[in-house]
Amino acid sequence: MREEALDLANYVVEKGRRLGFDEVASIVRISRRVMVKFANNEITVVQNWMDTTIALYLVKEAKCVLTRLVCRTKNDIDRALKNVYDHMAHVEPSALYAPLPEPNGKTLEGLTDPKLVQSLGTTIEVVPQLIDEGLREGAQRLAGTFHAGHRIKALVTSKGAELSEEGTFIEVYARAFYEDNSGHWAWTSTKFNDDRVLEVGRKAASYSKIRLPVTRIEPGRYNAILSPLVVGNLMSYVARAASALATMLGLSMFTKYKPGTKIGSEIISIIDEPRDPLLPNSTGFDDEGIETRTKYIIRKGIFESYLHNTKTATRMRGQLTGNAGWLQPHPWNVVVEPGDIDEDDIFCEVGEGIFVLNNWYTRYQNIVEGQFSTVSRDVVLYVKGGEPKSIIRRVRIAEVFPNLLNNIVGLTKTKYDIAWWEVKPPVRVPFVIAKNVLFTRPEV
Asked: What is the pTM of this model?
């Protein structure tokens, strides 16, 4: 499939140059995927896909067009290129235009699991085992998704990039129910691992079966324990805010917090990690053919690096970071460096506060200030004397990211690799303890 992908990408560039475009780049992705959905302890949906998508970047006289095709034929490519060329007269020159760079990227090896390549369909046989594991742990019902696949990526540019890469991925999440309570867990990797899949069911169930009195809290500031599900969601917002384009458009808190500025506690470090062979978004080259590299976004509380492509680096007089996006620079995988707390000791460490397992509906109220809110999902525990004392049904965290980052006082040694619909891109994160976090109650 790599040869097929490279052939299509080369065809786009050659055809586009012959047609009269000044610059052409193409990314062809061929994927083979399987998804299993389950609910009420039963598999409800099994889906299989094999698809080809072609992303095109086309430039004529500093006018830039990005488009995407879902196809596998060169006739489709011909029509798309001709259609764009015929409409270029109606496109305004880009204020951010910069020429494509000379490529220096290299293929990153070790991203593929032979089992997922050769026996993708049979990996779904682990799903009933996941359900059984959750039931044995004490849950009454489980629901969730198992998603895995094999992906090929090929990049060709008119500046000489001709690169291809392949990888596999697996994303699993489960929600477990016991009476009125629910628990959740998720896991991701490039490699299939039965034990990790079963752990998703087991951990989700262990949280769902907690039996404590139900209580309400008054809105106010509390010490908080945030699980890796919450940390992954929130820190991915922080990482995406480091996109140089977002800062240029005034759509990021890093518009006002420049590199070298203290924005968090000295124990918090956030890394853009594109080269770890176990994290599914890892790659050796970005969309412009530039080599990726591991970099700190925040190092020991200090904002360190914007994420650049050629356009933003040219405008801001910065250095390429290997994070293109033809339009928007972005992080690949987000890693939060661990601390020194044992996971079993987190309740004792916080003493009194609120444990939040999961969250969703994270929204900005003021994007430049980093002011956000997010609503809890699944079990929330009130902790006192180092022990869970009661269950809180729903709470909202209403905070400002710099405040939250500055108030982080502890991180666990153990980290978890997670991706699901509320955690994108993939993350590797610990449990986090933060002081003086503002909690309110949702209106509904």
From this structure: 0.96
